[in-house]
Amino acid sequence: MDRARNFMPGPNQELLDAKPLRSLAPMFPAPMGVNINQSSTPPLVVVTPVGQFPTGFGAGSLPAFGPFASFSATANTFSPAGTSANVPIDVTPVSAYKTRPSGVTPLNDDDEPYSVAQTSASERKAKRPADLAADGSNGVKFKHPKPIYKNHVAGKLLAFLPTSYSTPREAVEAVHMTFEALRRRHLQMDETQDVSRRADLKAGAIMMASEIRANAGKRVGTAPGVEIGDIFYFRMELCIIGLHAPSMGGIDYMSAKFGNGEDSVAICIVAAGGYENDDDDTDTLVYSGSGGNSRITEERHDQKLERGNLALERSLHRKNEIRVVRGFKDPAALAGKIYIYDGLYRIQESWKERTKFGINCFKYRLQREPGQRDGAAIWKRTQRWIQNASTRGTVIQHDLSSGAETFPVCVVNEVEHEKGPGHFTYTTQVKYPRPLSSMKALQGCGCQSVCLPGDANCACGQHNGGDLPYSSAGVLVCRKPVIYECGEACHCSLNCRNRVSQKGVRCHFEVFRTTNRGWGLRCWDPIRAGAFICEYAGEVIDELQVNLDDSEDDYIFQTVCPGEKTLKWNSGPELIGEESTYVSPDEFQPLPIKISAKQIGNFSRFMNHSCSPNVFWQPVQYDHGDDKHPHIMFFALNHIPPMTELTYDYGVVGAGTNRSKTCLCGSLTCRGLF
DNA sequence: GTTGATTCAAGTCA
DNA sequence: CTGACTTGAATCAA
């Protein structure tokens, strides 16, 4: 029923949807590669997308369209820099460009008006156009480095990276996903050797060295492809997607040209969350300048008006937009911290304050630009709900699962009057046609207490190809044809890390009414990439008793080959000298299992399809050994901010199914049918 | 489980 | 080109 309703047309997304799915962005032609093979430098193939990239500035004045709106702007249609800026500002980055490494040349070095290839600083200064503000448009002008995206390293195509990007969002997601995959794999290897070598920094270093990054070069204003509400768990993530360059420092700044003058201005700050005063006012932020603490000695001294502090001071006068990343203590994250991109702010005032150590420090009050959708505010709201579910208003059912799930699954309808989904019987389990005892048994390990990575005697580790599939934090490292969790036959305890999905749901979900796709599923908690989400519960359909009338059943799960984004979720092994685990659509082998959640099921039956999903399915075994009928478990494809609709790829039309439906996912890479 | 001290760090600017 | 500058993340002890 609900999936059937997905085909009603409708132009708008949910108000709370964190992703603006529609955009007017031009499609980039698939980039070509150029192989520059130098003996002294690693052979590199660089691909450069051709096309206009957004200025970054201006998004604040187009709140109705979200960050992508500016992307459609051409060189002559820039918007004023935000509603509150009456003063013409003309800014040109001066020291914004990383010097191109020797041996690496972008393919397209032509000089488009507002898109510049990377050149050396001296070259750039020499040819900086003097007429940037000549059109009197009151607009803000930038020259931006042309982003370089690579999917080749050492002359080899990296299977885990897309061959082309049609939007900055895709590029950012691919870079971010690659970072996370590398980080998980390094963590897995470190844990195998029982050492800690900062997998985040290691993954970041590989990304930097391979130049797999987005938005290289600095810019004032939005970072294309990074959306308000996007969440991060490591500072390096901000670095490689070009949101905030310093890997440690809190203030990112650059030198920019303002009319006839030149100034250093702040472009992004990370507010570590140490100064959270007013909980309800998420639109203002008091930020402290940096410095004053000597790392070596215990000495403290007054902060100086230089570097980042000076840039903030200049930004106060220049009134330029500053990206703000807010850090919060996240009780659910192991490191205890989560970073949320909260959009653009402007500095209102600055002052000096004497700290408790008796030193002078600079303070800056920042005001969030109006008209932007909520970022950190959503997180604060959902954190309250998690602590006390009754603070969640407009609930039409308090617990769809009637207590069957760890946490209540509420139902909300904020768009129309439908009182809830049609009747079904709630179950958290998948029901097999035959009893488990009659199915093939799963072999077990003899580990005492818990299985440990690197234990060559652990049969379960061997069964999974040598490594335990989950990190100590319970995050899946890599997609595989099947994951073997520890089960009944194992000697290890329930605390074993190789029992992630069988322990069930650990997040707070809600079923909500979408504007045009029936009911959907979203989560109050931020979910990190690789985290377990839920099982597809329902009845396993016995293929010996084929139900010919299942065309009426919109709740059937089948292992249809998903799109590229799902298939490429792996560890990026080529980057660290490991063999590719990529399975192409040609090689993809569907399983015979079919699960129907029409009569019985859990909340996963409300998860909608998207061609650009944030969730993927993964076969998992733990209570039987019939590899053709595994459990279907869902995991997060990337970090998912709270209240973002959860979607997975139902699969490519024509591959193993004769039913197809018009897709309303709105993704730019939408295949049209599923 | 939570908190504080301790240690080792990456990228960028000057 | 090198060092100074910035503080995060992980671990271990209390």
Would you write up a description of this structure?
- Keywords: Chromatin regulator, Chromosome, Nucleus.
- Helices cover 12% and strands 20% of the residues.
- The chain is an alpha+beta fold and 674 residues long.
- Helix 1 links the parallel strand 4 and strand 5.
- The radius of gyration is 26 Å and the shape is globular.
- It binds a DNA duplex (14 and 14 nucleotides) through residues 95, 98, 196, 198, 200-201, 204-205, 208, 234-236, 239, 245-252, 272, 290-291, 293, 295, 307-308, 334-337.
Instruction: Give the number of DSSP strands.
Output: 30
Largest sheet: 8 strands, mixed
Percentage of residues in strands: 15-25%
Helix content class: 10-25%
Q: What kind of assembly state do the chains in view correspond to?
A: single chain
Return residue spans where pLDDT drops below 50 for at least 5 consecutive residues: 1-90, 92-149
Structural class: alpha+beta
Distance between the termini: 16 Å
Shape summary: globular
